[in-house]
Amino acid sequence: MALPLALALMGCAQGAASQGSAQGFRMVAAPIYSTAALPVARMLGTWRQVAGFGAPAPCTTAPSLQITAEGGSATARYDLCFGPHRRTGTGALASGGAQGRYRLPNLNAPIWVLWMDENNRSAVLGTPDGSFGMILSKDPIPKDRLRAAREVLAWNGYDLTQFHQY
Predict the structure, then answer these.
(1) What is the pLDDT of residues 59-71, one digit of tens each?
(2) Which residues of 4-29 are buried (b: 16+ CB within 10 A; e: fewer)?
(3) Ranges of H-type helices in 74-142
(4) What's the pTM?
(5) How many domains in the chain?
(6) Under 8 Å CB-to-CB from 12, ≥6 apart: which residues?
(7) Percent of the chain with pLDDT over 70
(8) Where are the alpha helices (DSSP H) in the chain?
(9) Distance, CA of 158 to CA of 137 (rounded, Å)
(10) Per the CB 3.0–4.6 Å rule, which of 53, 78, 109, 110 could disulfide with 25?
(11) What share of the chain is helix, strand, coil (3-state, %, to 5)?
């Protein structure tokens, strides 16, 4: 019984991963998984982007993401590097169809939370099309959490040769 369920879930993940361009920072044929049990409440706070993919030039000053909640809805204010481009925006943090999947205002690609440590201090974000991948942290990220975050990116098909810290 468990094997058919596991195979069905893998098929869904592979279907999601095969959508999008092969031009990104990950092998789109590789399975990608978002954190299934991640309510927005775990995302609240101010995050600093500590690493990502693409040219570091537009991200020499600290990229950040702030998520607040008011009246049952979440608002995002971001200034982040998505691959080679720095983007900013403010507005409602919308559902991306499941917990752990979100949409930021003025950004076409979905945001998938690939991993978050149990104390909500560090997170890995990515997208099935591989157009970006990043590591966020609320505090100076220690080497063990950075290593874990890098391993999550690699496991989800990201090419770590294009990875850099800010």
Answers:
(1) 877 799 999 998 8
(2) eeeeeeeeebeebbeebeeebbbebe
(3) none
(4) 0.84
(5) 1
(6) none
(7) 86
(8) 2-17, 143-155
(9) 19
(10) 53
(11) 25, 35, 40
C-alpha to C-alpha distance for 115 and 131, rounded to whole angstroms: 18
**Would you say 51 and 146 are in contact if contact means Cβ atoms under 8 Å apart?**
yes
Residue 33: which CATH number?
A: 2.40.128.20
Residue pair 79/58 in contact (Cβ under 8 Å)? The answer is no
Supply the range of the domain harboring residue 156: 2-165
Helix or strand (DSSP H, E) at 112: strand 111-116
Give the pLDDT of residue 55.
77
Letter string b/e over residues 69-104, b meaning 16 or more CB atoms within 10 A of that residue's CB: eeeeebebbbbbbbbbebbeeeeebbebeebbbbbb
- Of all helices (H) and strands (E), which one includes residue 91? strand 85-92
- AA letter at 15: G
Residue pointed to by tokens 């195979």: 7
Q: Which residues make Cβ contacts (< 8 Å) with residue 149, sequence separation at least 6?
A: 51, 115, 122, 123, 124, 135, 141
Q: Closest Cα partner for 80 from 32, 122, 47, 41?
A: 47
Tell me the Cα Rg of the chain: 15
